[in-house]
Inverse folding.
């Protein structure tokens, strides 16, 4: 696959921190802000003391769309590819592969799954009703 | 849904104090190096041909140009200083603006201050790009750190991905329909049909064509998506005194402003930084939206035109679909002439938002030819750019006036 492997250091760290049973995102040790996409400085207090923590992975689908066109041959075989934006209860917005086909307003879980070249891909998963409310 | 709460750890300050006046600054000599879908020439070639056009049109000799401001997505590994050597310029002021579709308006602002402060006498402002078969993909794949980590792996759709989500959210929130976006695209094609050199200007587009186009991403179909291409646009910034002495038609800057990473807590981008400065912008210009004779918005996707119509006060937040149903957007429709040369959607995307600035100057100089807006005296040009993650971060706008002879 010729997708650029040029993930940043924090991007690779996200993949290394990923766990099957939880969503692990970057959190500031000082002010506890959770942030995404990963970076090297806290967006709130500018501390560089960041660590990887399991977060509440429940969220609400903001919008979804089916991609009918891709710049990469590998994705072209998977079209239409389900893209969505999800607002997580822990405070961050994530773009995801919408495998659970959640519609706008639906409650979902977001998990990190192994992807090509040691990266991870955030994907939606169904959520049962009891777990859905924040 | 309410997006009026800006409470966030990274909130935006209101526009106080406001930028000072741009008195005494003149914009002259709008030039375009014709756009082509693909080119074997480099970005330096397009920028250099624009510079030659500026010299030719103004009658100002190359050695008297003492400032250069460029924007390009395809100039690397060269930069603005490399270009001084390419073109044999010895300048005392240089600027390179990497702000995507806001670069034209922002280049204008930076150059105007250089003129006012005496840092330069004549600044050439140029946006130019080349386009090769794989260059768009390379630009998109490595656009930003966040994009490489958190956008490109999600289907590798380029900007169509995030903008499909913005468009869908806008439709869900405000009830806009595909047909409403279509009105913007069809009006721009009409304008392009009257603009020699517009890349799609020899093709007609009606609402049926628009609605029947093939799907690209969610609500976005073929005619919602801008076509990357090669080309360049430029203009000169100098003093009103010099423009008059050279007997060149010119435009003045009534007001201009910019804002970046505004409303970052909004879940999906349904507004941009324009909201934060537009009241002050109009106040400084001494006019209101009703006084604008023509408007150029940055049109990578029609929903972004709607955000600008709302953000710049032509209609209320969420009311742009109704506005475009009721208002002719063609150059000759008697409503609000909008993207009067066809914009990027019908003209192609190159040159980082310079297209709208150059078109505004042509209209105010009354040199727009077949698509001239009669009696054009005041024009507004808006910029938008840089989808670093899930939204465009840069917003800018300028109100320009026809200079007195
Ligand atoms: Zn912090």
């Amino acid at each position: 696959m010729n997708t650029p492997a040029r993930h940043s250091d924090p991007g690779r760290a996200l993949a290394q921190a990923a766990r099957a049973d939880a969503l692990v995102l970057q959190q500031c040790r000082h002010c506890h802000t959770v942030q995404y996409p990963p970076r090297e400085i806290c967006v709130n207090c500018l501390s560089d003391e960041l660590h990887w923590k399991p977060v509440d992975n429940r969220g609400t689908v903001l919008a979804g769309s089916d991609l009918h066109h891709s710049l990469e041959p590998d994705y072209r075989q998977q079209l239409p590819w389900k893209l969505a934006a999800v607002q997580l209860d822990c405070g961050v917005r994530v773009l995801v592969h919408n495998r659970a086909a959640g519609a706008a307003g639906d409650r979902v879980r977001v998990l990190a799954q192994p992807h090509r070249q040691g990266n991870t891909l955030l994907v939606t998963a169904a959520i049962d009703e009891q777990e859905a409310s924040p | 849904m309410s997006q009026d709460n800006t409470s966030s750890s990274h909130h935006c300050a209101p526009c106080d104090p406001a930028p000072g006046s741009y008195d005494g600054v003149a914009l002259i000599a709008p030039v375009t190096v014709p756009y082509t879908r693909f080119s074997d020439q480099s970005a330096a070639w397009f920028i250099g041909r624009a510079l030659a056009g500026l010299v030719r049109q103004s009658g100002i000799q190359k050695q008297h140009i003492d400032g250069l401001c460029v924007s390009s997505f395809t100039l690397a590994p060269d930069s603005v200083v490399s270009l001084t050597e390419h073109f044999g310029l010895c300048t005392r002021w240089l600027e390179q603006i990497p702000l995507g579709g806001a670069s034209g308006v922002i280049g204008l602002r930076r150059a105007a201050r250089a003129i006012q402060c005496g840092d330069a006498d004549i600044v050439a402002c140029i946006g130019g790009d080349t386009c090769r078969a794989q260059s768009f993909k390379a630009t998109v794949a490595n656009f930003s750190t966040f994009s490489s980590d958190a956008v490109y792996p999600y289907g590798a759709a380029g900007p169509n991905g995030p903008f499909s989500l913005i468009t869908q959210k806008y439709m869900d929130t405000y009830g806009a329909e595909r047909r409403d976006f279509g009105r913007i695209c069809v009006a721009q094609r009409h304008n392009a049909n009257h603009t020699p050199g517009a890349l799609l200007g020899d093709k007609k587009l009606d609402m049926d064509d628009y609605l029947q186009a093939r799907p690209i991403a969610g609500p976005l179909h073929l005619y919602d998506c801008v076509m990357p291409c090669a080309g360049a646009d430029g203009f000169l910034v100098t003093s009103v005194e010099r423009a008059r002495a050279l007997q060149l038609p010119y435009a003045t800057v009534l007001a201009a402003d910019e804002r970046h990473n505004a409303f970052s807590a909004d879940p999906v981008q349904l507004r941009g930084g324009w909201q934060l400065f537009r009241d002050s912008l109009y106040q400084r210009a001494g006019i209101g939206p009703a006084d604008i004779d023509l408007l150029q918005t940055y049109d990578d996707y029609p929903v972004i035109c709607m955000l600008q119509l709302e953000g710049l006060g032509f209609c209320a937040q969420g009311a742009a679909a109704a506005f475009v149903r009721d208002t002719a957007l063609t150059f000759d429709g008697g409503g609000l002439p909008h993207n009067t040369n066809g914009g990027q959607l019908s003209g192609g995307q190159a040159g980082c938002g310079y297209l709208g600035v150059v078109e505004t100057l042509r209209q105010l100089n009354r040199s727009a030819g077949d698509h001239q807006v009669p009696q054009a005296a005041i024009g507004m040009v808006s910029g938008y750019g840089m989808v670093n993650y899930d939204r465009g971060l840069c917003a800018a706008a300028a109100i320009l006036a026809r200079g007195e002879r």
Notes: DSSP finds 14 helices and eleven strands in chain B. Residues 25-134+228-245 of chain B form a domain with the Peroxisomal Thiolase; Chain A, domain 1 fold (CATH 3.40.47.10). Residues 43-58 of chain B form the longest helix (16 residues). Residues 262 and 272 of chain B are 6 Å apart (CA to CA).
